Amino acid sequence: MADPTVDVSRFVDEQKVGAFHVKLLILSFFIALFDGYDIGAAAFAAPSWIKAWGLASRAALAPVLAASLVGILFGAPILGFVGDLFGRKKAIIASCLIFGGFTLIGAWANSLEAMWYLRFLAGIGIGGLLPNLIALNAEFAPRRFRATMIILMFTGITFGGSVPGAAAAWLVPHYGWPILFVIGGVAPIAMALVAFFALPESIKYLTVQRRWPQVARMLAAMQPGVALPPPYPPPQAGEGKGGGFVLADERHATRFSPKLLFSDGLGAITPLLWLLFVLNLMGFYFLASWNPTLLASANVSEGMAAIATALFQIGGTIGGLTLSRPIDRKGFLPVTILFALAVPVIASVGYVGKLSPVLLMLVLLLGGFCVLGLQFGLNAASAMIYPTAVRSNGSGWAFGIGRFGSVAGPYVGGYLIAQRVPIEQLYVLAAIPFAFGAGVCFVLTRLYHTRFKGYGLGQREMLDQPAAAE
Length: 470
Known about the structure:
The protein is mostly helical. The protein is built from 19 helices and two strands.
């Protein structure tokens, strides 16, 4: 006979990774892939805009390269809120339609000003996608594999980021730069349709919303043949026995306030996490936005620039996969180490580029391992330190605040390029955010493990909440 109630959090945490999780992971991977493609497509179209629109200098591209990042600044918290209020699945579909639609229209843009507005609007959709995808995968993942599942999903970003380079080398000479935006627009719209039919809604969100029949179907899909209680609500305090589903880590389920991101021991942890997002995204988008243009100005062929960019993304995938299990076991410590390693690697890019093309490829591969690997780790952390009821908001605010760094990266790069700073010094300057990040992450690591008594990421629900909040 089934227990009168089922703790959904515990049920999910005790599951083995099965067909249900694999299907979710594959769907999420391909949705994320086109998010990664979008940023890369703009960077590879940029050199063609200089010729097509008669731009006076490369620095004039900075506002357009940063436009989608400004949009993400707004889209991440807004659509994160939508995900917590109306469901992760709805927010993911809306995000795909928004950024796919405005990216597709961008194929017909005929000026830098028009492209800025379209990139900004596309960025709103892009901003909402990852917080909700991360929250969705975090809420279905067994605790011991939570960081691993989030990071595996996020590899779609890096695979997607490696595609525009190949598309630019093979298709742009025949069809022009708009083909990059046609691909980047049609594919997310198609994925929105696939998500409508195939993507599950978050089971923890459904529990918070008291949608018992849907919760029962989801549990049965994860573990066929499981004995479940009848789908009626659990008892309120003092009402006696009942049945249904509960959520052990449910708090503040019905209303969100930003103050919740600073409660229950998170008062210092949340701003430090935001600062890490700012620092890493500043360095990453400096590199992602300007690498193709800088490599071209350094007389690296278009084909070699495409290979270098692909290697940067591949290195990020390797870095993320390498981090997945250590983050599950050690929390922030592996992220701290990677921040420190990124400093000498990024600082050396401009120098090794003059020595050997092969050495440049190897350093960019290692650079991607560090920089994108860091973002993998931070994304996983943002989903694992917040409770279910505010998880999309927690990730969304971290992504949104982090976009101040991602917007600053292209602008700072454009300014330095306009000042004719040598390429060697440009990459040394690009390493500075990672040096600061190493120190901040060290403080956060100590603070988190002290505040939560040594529990790993994603294990806060094991603590007695009132005691933890004292």
